[in-house]
Amino acid sequence: MRERILVVDDDPMVRDILVRFLQREGYIALVASSGGEALEIVTHQAPDLVLLDVTMPGLDGFGVCRVLKNNARTALIPVTMLTGLDDRDNRQRGLEAGADDFLSKPFDQPMLRARLRSQLRIKHLTDQLEHTESVIFSLALAVEVKDSYTEGHLWRLSEYGHQLALAHGLPTDEARFVRYGGLLHDIGKIGVSDTILSKNGPLTPGEYALMQEHTHIGARIVAPMRFAPQVGPIILSHHEFWNGCGYPNALAGEQIPVGARVIAVLDSYDAMTTDRAYRSSLGRDEAIRRLRAGSGSQWDPTLIDLFVSIVERGELVQPTRAQSADRKAESQ
Fold first, then answer.
1. Residue 107 class from Cβ within 10 Å (0-12 exposed, 13-18 middle, 19+ buried)?
2. Residue of 2, 46, 91, 276 with fewest CB within 10 Å of its CB?
3. Which residues pair with residue 279 across a beta bridge?
4. H-helix segments, 151-257
5. Predicted TM-score of the model (pTM)
6. Are residues 150 and 99 in the same domain?
7. CATH assignment at residue 211
């Protein structure tokens, strides 16, 4: 499929040179003569790369680049800034705006060709990763569909996890990874037999050992994701206990990644306060009593105190169906 490259320059001669070059190279050339027109085109025809002039009247190249990079839907489109002002200040401003590359006028065609191919190669790899991530999120939801009693569990943990992470003082980016961890924490169950997952009675030692494997399986499934270094440990360690008696690695205390400690609390709370195949909901008060009883043994006592206070003040945010749909689109 032919790549689309958007040329943004207020100089018609520069636009013409670039468009003719791109067409000779086999690309589809989109053209804008101003920053505003460029943003309008991107909205309707997402390009694979943007060649963006720096000095334009009105919204200049730096402004356009900032808008693109601050929008989750366009942030991954490579932006190469074009300027005759080959100086450190403009390059620094471009980097601060989020530019991916720079080209100086007049253009050296072999260099232009090589730079375009390099940026498009990175874009193709990014697109492949995005597709992989979309498939993985879909797999996570497929696990939930297996059990009607857990409907909405993943989205609740995703929202609860984000809320508790922020309340605990984690930076926004780390809280976002906890949100993903809430959605993906049990994805490894796709590799566990339905017979074990849906069993009403207690598991045999052999079945329990197989169930424990879902943490390793989940961590392996998400390994291709860009945020695997942050989310993988949450998936792997969300069944560890504060006192070191959990699985799979018998980690204790702050050896357990903080995101995993957050999800461990919320996973248990949500399980206790929803109906399951083998029992009815225990109710909020009983769930809180059990969380307090396990504080310092199964769960991080600081997180238990914080979470219980949020629940008792009535501040735990319940995700709506609309919010869940928004989060799904955002994550994909």
1. middle
2. 2
3. 276
4. 153-167, 172-184, 194-197, 205-221, 228-237
5. 0.64
6. no
7. 1.10.3210.10
